[in-house]
Structure to design on (195 residues):
């Protein structure tokens, strides 16, 4: 039986024999291609100058920091995170890509009510400041979240004052009319003013 195939080097090879020998030949070819790739990577790393090797180490350290930074946002953001992290890459002298910047999108919209907005703003601030080294953008998001929380607290306080004032006015009107809460006249509690 003859089978024609294309090897990893785009050269045609003809293999004769049983299907078992075809599989074995493919495994040998795959294994040798893998070994060649590994050897090429080793020899390429040996060909890097001392300066290039330093650049690679710096890029590897930056990549680790950037990924840890964005992962901290994701872990603290929980349900506020919209999708995963996105990264900006740089290619090193070893032709590998390294993350040099990243971002995580977080829902920073206020809640429907002040009661919903306050804890949401706190979670936004916590997510923004979660990394050990928050960026200026992270600090800006945290400041905006703090402002949002303050506005929600002020709105909630105004609502409560308004509700309390409305209650006082309703009770005051009942006393002015000389009527208790149960609707019966109140003796001796009314005030007559004559001008």
């Amino acid at each position: 039986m003859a089978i024609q195939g294309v090897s990893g080097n785009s050269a045609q090879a003809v293999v004769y024999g049983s299907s078992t020998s075809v599989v074995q030949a493919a495994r040998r070819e795959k294994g040798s291609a893998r070994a060649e790739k590994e050897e090429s990577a080793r020899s390429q790393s040996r060909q890097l100058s001392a300066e290039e090797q330093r650049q690679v180490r710096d890029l590897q350290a930056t990549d680790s920091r950037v990924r840890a930074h964005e992962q901290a946002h994701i872990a603290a953001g929980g349900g506020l995170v919209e999708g995963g992290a996105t990264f900006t890459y740089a290619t090193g002298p070893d032709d590998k890509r390294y993350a040099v910047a990243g971002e995580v999108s977080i829902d920073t919209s206020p809640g429907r009510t002040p009661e919903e907005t306050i804890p949401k703003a706190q979670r936004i601030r916590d997510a923004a400041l979660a990394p050990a080294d928050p960026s200026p953008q992270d600090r800006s998001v945290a400041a905006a979240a703090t402002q949002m929380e303050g506005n929600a607290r002020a709105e909630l306080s105004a609502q409560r004052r308004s509700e309390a004032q409305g209650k006082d006015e309703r009770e005051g009107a009942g006393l002015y009319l000389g009527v208790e809460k149960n609707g019966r006249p109140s003796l001796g509690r009314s005030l007559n003013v004559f001008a």
About this structure: The first strand starts at residue 2 and ends at 6. Residues 48-105 form one domain. The radius of gyration is 36 Å.
